[in-house]
Amino acid sequence: MKIKTKSGFECNVNEKKAKDWRFIKLLALCDSGDESDALKGITQAVPFLLGDKGEASLMEHVSKDGIASAEDIMVEFKEIMTQVGNASTETKN
After folding, report:
1. pLDDT in tens, 43-60
2. Quick count: other Cβ atoms within 10 Å of Cβ 1?
3. In the chain, how many domains are there?
4. Which residue among 5, 33, 40, 85 has its CA within the 20 to 30 Å range from the CA of 93?
5. Range of the domain at 26
């Protein structure tokens, strides 16, 4: 599925990967109350879903002065996940 965020980042997401058990476990870590687990989850979930090239493109997209803000990455990833969830819901109806 083709995703385009509000900021203009475009990527392709394999919906099967978004439903993969390993990915679901990483998302559970992201929602963990433990900050270390949450960081581990997000740092592994992004490349799992987007692939290495997609992650690199995302970092390039959000980079300012050579720095890819973790907050900006998380905002973009959250929007990507919302769109994936919306598309998944639409296909069920």
Report:
1. 999 999 999 999 999 999
2. 13
3. 1
4. 5
5. 2-92
